[in-house]
Design goal:
CATH class: Mainly Alpha
Radius of gyration: 11 Å
Strand order of the largest sheet: 1-2
Helix content: 55-70%
Number of strands: 2
Largest sheet: 2 strands, antiparallel
Shape: globular
Order of helices and strands: EHHHHHE
CATH topology: 434 Repressor (Amino-terminal Domain)
Low-confidence stretches: none
Strand content: 5-15%
CATH superfamily: lambda repressor-like DNA-binding domains
Mean pLDDT: 96
Length: 73
Amino acid sequence: MPTVDMIATGRNIKDIMKGKGMTAKDIQAVFGFNTPQAIFKWFRGDTIPTVDNLVILANIFDVKMDDIVVVNK
């Protein structure tokens, strides 16, 4: 069964964000989070964004969700 590689996905989110010239503060503002802690948890692979949040990330990064999520097959 395919599984989501949470650590690689987190690294991917961080890399795409940096490649787009964005910061964790920018992402925090888009989502309206009070603190950037959730975003840093994504970066570390402690958690992954919900599907709704992945849709938003894909939109602000101008990529497909498949470009964000790393799947082990």
